[in-house]
Design goal:
With 519 residues, this protein is α/β, with parallel strands linked by helices. The chain has 11 helices and 27 strands. 26% of the residues lie in helices and 25% in strands. Helix 7 packs across helix 8 and helix 9 packs parallel to helix 10. The structure holds alpha-L-arabinofuranose.
Length: 519
């Protein structure tokens, strides 16, 4: 109690951050001229499954809705997603994808068959948001399409037809049908998932069974749009299990001319207990620290799977695509069963930053990722309630990290120190740096300690810095949230670091995320 009062007081009086900072500032050094790999913008991808209110209401309200929309897609959500420069959106699932039949989602909307969504609450799937609506949506937000095809309950012919329908410029029967449905030009499909969790909801296949399917789908689900190269992503591991990683990479290494892939998926959520029972708000410091500790496990997962991939693919041709990640917490009390609705707190902002930092440190191999999920589901960017919309702390981290999209990763040296909570020990600080295409260097700093501000002094080798300006995301409490009634409890504030004698110094509030540009 006393601890949380002190924490709140420190944040109210911003100057207190300096007083509360420990005497030993964390020294950070960055080489501005370093030549690391590019942090692929696709690492900041989103995931929109037909699940709960993720698509229906979250994205799609229909052209006749009172909610301002463009061809049925809500304008407020589009504007918010454009601001975070979403590189790609994965759709239609998730588990939903392996029961999705694309033909149900084309043609006149009032003639589409209602079907079921057995994975997620058993609700009716109206199929009003289908292929054309999704492609229109990604075009409206300026993102690429990442489609997941149905390997679990579909057929190779169904998948092949969908790809021909979408991508061929030739006047085939399927292209003519596409044109009759309003889109004569071929669509670009940048990423194609060859199944989803085939070890689980996607068919409970052993690694070898999946590899047999993979070869067939990778051959026949062809891209005919030469203007848009398409990367095919094979189903990969569930967490730490390397069975799928070994089997897919081995098959790829020994592949014939007849098939290929460009990526391997990894799914890993921050979930401490199953079913998810950690509360999304109203939690104590032990749960705060436990969730952050579990999040940091992403580092060992990525390292483990990368090591297996390195054995078969030392040139890193195949990307590791972490296309489902994020905190999976207890559902919001009273929310519908199977809708996976959960609040999003300042702790989630740190979960996002720590994961993005891990992906950046593995930029040579991790070249795409998708947080689960974009709107109203799991660790969402955005919540909607009818005509209202609110941006979550996680959204703000994605916004602050925009400068890292396609920037060159720069190695950072620092002694993180330790944050202790009971028996748990975590690094006190996390930091990444990158150089954007204009030569400007950006640093992202996460102070994990919810009780102590952290002062940092940063030396940037190879570049004179005149100004160090950015944004910081702190909150009254580590479980603070934005709501429809109070949407600006957790929002980024400007921060200016001191530049003197070749050092950049700043105070980072407890449990905060800060991004600073060095000019
Ligand atoms: O994101 C929710 C679900 O989690 C997805 O449908 C599935 O792929 C995963 O198990």
């Amino acid at each position: 109690m006393i601890r949380s009062m002190r924490y709140a007081l420190c944040l109210v009086a911003f100057a207190c951050a300096a007083m509360a900072a420990d005497k030993n500032a964390v020294s950070i050094s960055v080489d501005a001229a370093g030549a690391g790999p590019k942090i692929d913008r696709n690492v900041f991808g989103q995931f929109a499954e037909h699940l709960g209110r993720g698509v229906y209401e979250g994205v799609w309200v229909g052209p006749d809705s009172k909610i301002p929309n463009t061809r049925g897609v809500r304008n407020d959500v589009v504007a918010a997603l454009k601001a975070i420069k979403v590189p790609n959106v994965r759709w239609p699932g998730g588990c939903f994808a392996d029961e999705y039949h694309w033909r149900n989602g084309i043609g006149p909307r009032d003639q589409r068959p209602p079907t079921l969504n057995p994975n997620w609450g058993g609700v009716i799937e109206p199929n009003t948001f289908g292929t054309h609506e999704f492609m229109d949506f990604v075009q409206q937000i300026g993102a690429d399409a990442y489609l997941s095809i149905n390997v679990g309950s579909g057929t190779p012919a169904e998948a092949a037809d969908w790809l021909e329908y979408l991508t061929t410029p030739q006047p085939t029967a399927l292209a003519k049908e596409r044109a009759a449905n309003g889109h004569p030009a071929p669509y670009p499909v940048a990423l194609l998932g060859l199944g989803n969790e085939s070890w689980g909801c996607g068919g409970s296949m052993t690694p070898d069974e999946y590899v047999n399917h993979l070869k067939v789908y990778a051959r026949y689900a062809r891209n005919y749009n030469t203007a848009q190269p398409m990367r095919r992503i094979a189903v990969g591991p569930d967490g730490a299990d390397t069975g799928y990683t070994e089997a897919v990479m081995k098959a790829w290494k020994n592949k014939t001319w007849a098939w290929d892939i460009e990526g391997l998926s990894l799914h890993s959520y921050t979930v401490v207990k199953w079913p998810p029972s950690f509360k999304a708000t109203g939690f104590d410091e032990t749960e705060y620290a436990t969730i952050l500790k579990a999040t940091l496990n992403m580092e060992s997962l990525v390292s483990t799977h990368s090591a297996v991939m390195d054995r078969y693919d030392p040139d890193k041709k195949i990307a590791l695509v972490v296309d489902e990640w994020g905190a999976w917490l207890a559902p919001t009390p009273g929310s519908p069963e199977g809708f996976l609705e959960q609040q999003n707190s300042q702790r989630d902002a740190l979960v996002a930053a720590l994961n993005l930092n891990i992906f950046a440190r593995h930029a040579a191999r991790v070249r795409a990722a998708n947080i689960a999920q974009m709107v109203n589901v799991l660790q969402a960017m955005i919540f909607t309630r009818q005509e209202k919309m609110v941006l979550t702390p996680t959204y703000h981290v994605f916004h602050m990290y925009v400068p890292f999209q396609d920037a060159t990763f720069l190695p950072v040296q620092f002694e993180a120190g330790t944050y202790k909570s009971g028996d748990l020990e975590l690094p006190r600080l996390d930091a990444i740096a990158a150089r954007d295409s204009t030569g400007k260097v950006w640093v992202a700093l996460t102070n994990l300690d919810p009780n102590r501000a952290a002062s940092i002094d940063l030396a940037l080798a190879g570049k004179r810095v005149a100004r160090a300006v950015g944004q910081t995301l702190a909150a009254p409490k580590f479980d603070s949230v934005n709501t429809f009634e109070s949407p600006a409890v957790v929002v980024p504030k400007p921060i200016t670091a001191k530049v003197a004698g070749g050092k950049i110094t700043a105070n980072l509030a407890p449990a905060s995320v800060t991004v600073i540009g060095l000019e």
